[in-house]
Design brief:
Layout: E1 9-18, E2 21-31, E3 36-40, H1 47-55, E4 62-67, E5 70-71, E6 81-84, H2 96-107, H3 113-120, H4 136-147, E7 154-158, H5 166-181, E8 185-190, E9 201-206, E10 209-214, H6 216-223, H7 228-241
Parallel strand pairs: 3-8, 3-9, 6-7, 7-8
Antiparallel strand pairs: 1-2, 1-4, 4-5, 9-10
Helix pairs in contact: 2-3, 6-7
């Protein structure tokens, strides 16, 4: 049984190759429980590949990934991890509520969970809409709702706020923080720098390597700036000059 003081995620020397090319180069880090950890970096830097490795659906070339005390991908983790990909994970010929009830049955989640997560992601009024009729932002929220079914201890979200208006983005970030306050661990990827300040911890990837790993305040202090985007630019300058 996992000790609550143990990290939720432990990654050691993780290497992943795709198409004959190494895309993650020996990553090592830990993610503590009950925090929102932001995974930041430009498109193509390896964020999605890293998240797939954590969830256990990515073939790795070397290293170890331990999640909630188990090797990534272990059957014991299936009901403990919620995962929302960039591509919507809903059936377009079913209503949103029917989708959620189906996935809830697969996960063994309570019957009332469909309505609960619809409310949490702001889709309570769209429960009877077919998946194929949803807008891009609604599809993202429906996929997020699937990831929140049951009582996941770890929620991994790949670009969950893409295409959403600022008001809804703010509401979802309040939801993420509320989950963390209840002890849920969240890993949230983004390439939007203004979302970085909402995380307790930031892991910045660049070209398949960890470019920075610190709190938002720690990054600001290190680079002597109050703006996180400016902090990242200064880190790039420091690396180029090294």
């Amino acid at each position: 049984m996992m000790n609550l003081s143990d990290p939720a995620i432990s990654v050691r020397d993780l290497r992943v190759s795709r198409g004959g090319r190494e895309v993650l180069h020996g990553l090592t880090f830990e993610v503590p429980r009950g925090q929102v950890t932001g995974l930041l970096g430009p498109s193509g830097c390896g964020k999605t590949t890293l998240m797939r490795s954590i969830v256990g659906v990515q073939l790795v070339a070397g290293g170890e990934v331990t999640v909630l005390g188990e090797p990534a991908g272990s059957p014991a983790l299936r009901r403990k991890i919620g995962y929302s990909t960039q591509n919507p994970a809903v059936y377009r010929d079913l209503s949103v509520r029917e989708n959620l009830r189906y996935f809830a049955a697969v996960l063994g989640a309570p019957k009332g969970d469909a309505d609960r997560v619809l409310e949490e992601v702001g889709l309570a009024g769209a429960g009877d809409q077919l998946g194929g009729s949803l807008s891009g932002g609604q599809l993202n929220r429906a996929s997020l709702a699937v990831a929140l079914l049951g009582s996941p201890e770890l929620v991994v979200l790949d670009e969950p706020t893409v295409g959403l208006d600022p008001v809804l983005r703010q509401e979802l970030w309040r939801l993420f923080q509320g989950l963390a306050d209840r002890g849920v661990t969240l890993v949230v990827s983004s390439h939007v720098m203004d979302e970085a300040a909402r995380c307790q911890r930031l892991i910045v990837l660049r070209d398949g390597e960890i470019f920075a790993d610190d709190t938002p305040d720690g990054l600001r202090e290190h680079t002597r700036t109050t703006d996180l985007e400016e902090a990242f630019l200064r880190l790039i300058e420091e690396r180029a000059a090294a």
